[in-house]
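Recall from the previous lesson that a structure prediction takes nothing but the amino acid sequence as input. Here we apply that procedure to OsmC family peroxiredoxin from Salinimonas sediminis. The sequence below is the only information supplied.
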Amino acid sequence: MAIVKTASAHYQPLGKSGQGHVSLASGALSEQPYGFNTRFEDKTGTNPEELIAGAHASCYAMALSFALADAGYDSGELKVDAAVTLEKDGDGFAVTQSALTLDAKVSGIDEDEFSNIAKDAKENCPISKLLKAEISLDYTFHN
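The prediction returns the following tokens.
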């Protein structure tokens, strides 16, 4: 079973003066602005790193929740923050880290078992795996 979720982005004109808009097929985001100023100057709008952080935090929270339930724990609450770091890399930039911070309240579990389940969920969360994945690119070029 394969589930495909989509998003789209549009950016024009090119370079720092350009402005983009990102939309999710679900409609949760529609024409959300992004650009140089939202990425590097904290202006209103979003940016790729913030979107990755939201995806990683929500995916990890769900993966851990399911893993805890599979281990027999059904009472609790998880709060996950993700901080995605963008750093200068030569002439460009690189995303160098996604730091997850977890605040968990789970009834009836000891810390060693919780730690093992939490670490396994971090390694096996689909977005954690994506951040290590091969990236493909198909394109159409118009001149």
